[in-house]
Fold this sequence. Notes:
The chain has helices at 16-27, 61-66, 77-83, 109-112, 125-134, 150-153, 168-172, 192-197, 199-216, and strands at 8-13, 43-45, 51-56, 72-76, 88-93, 99-105, 118-122, 139-143, 159-164, 176-184, 186-191.
Amino acid sequence: MIESTDSLTLALSKGRILEDTLPMLARMGVEPVEDPLVSRRLVFPTNHDNLRLLVIRATDVPTFVAHGAADVGIAGKDVLLEHGGAGLYEPLDLDIARCRLMVAGYPGALERAGNRPLRVATKYVETARAWFARQGRQVEVVKLYGSMELAPIVGLADVIVDLVDTGGTLKANGLEAFETIEHISSRLVVNKASMKMKHAGIDSLLQAFASARQAAA
Ligand code: AMP
């Protein structure tokens, strides 16, 4: 039960994360006016007068929350790593949309590149650079926005850095996973000013999410 006199805006990530978030909101007794999986609305009032939802691209959630356009957000750890997390608190791991951020390619791709810079295709440019820098490996990063698995197939890159869940997409394309960069799940993030100014409301929302997470475990 969410008890808030503060009006709160919660930013949700579209796609796989949204599918896992909606059952959680239902367990918390939060009902959007329309089904976000079907509706083309961007803003969803809910049955709680003081709570509205925004449904936006996953990569935009940290930006909306850091700028205070939303008080609270739900974002994948992959997106938060890439964003850097400035202006955000990350108080709760919701344990949904779990997967791994991995380096993958054709078998033997890392060895075949020898000592030349490894060409890496990814949308996680900063995270990939930091990972290979820690390994002492020189890289040329090619930024893509989707279908990373295609890059090694067409010779655009030696390897990719992408999310892997079942491994089915890699397998279907003859690729294999080499290394895990990070275990990923979705996190609740909170705007730092909102945390101070709307403490009671945000605390109530956090408690409700924590209970809903436990109920699912
Ligand atoms: P899979 O074939 O199950 O390993 O899933 C891999 C594909 O789904 C890749 O294209 C990933 O980018 C995407 N994917 C996997 N897990 C997630 C997630 N938690 N959130 C968003 N996309 C994901």
